[in-house]
Amino acid sequence: EGFGGRDRGGFSERGVLRRSVPHWLRGPELRGLVLGFEEAARHHGGGGALYVRLRRR
C-alpha cells in the first residue's frame, strides 16, 4: 500500500495536483472568484504551494 492509495488503484502518476490545480483555478467555475495565483516563496512551500488571490464579494 502506498501513501494516498497510489498503489491501490489510486493516482498512478506523480504531480497530479501540481498540474491540475492551476487548470481548475483558471476554469469557468472559479474564474469569477480567483484574481490570480503564483508559486509560493520557498519558505512557504515553494513549488509545492501556491498563493491564490481571491476577489472580494
TrEMBL record:
A Pfam entry, by short name: Smr
Species this chain originates from: Methylorubrum extorquens DSM 13060
Residue stretches making up the Smr domain: 1-55
Cited InterPro entries: Smr_dom, Smr_dom_sf
Coiled-coil segments on the chain, per record: none
Name of the featured protein: Smr protein/MutS2
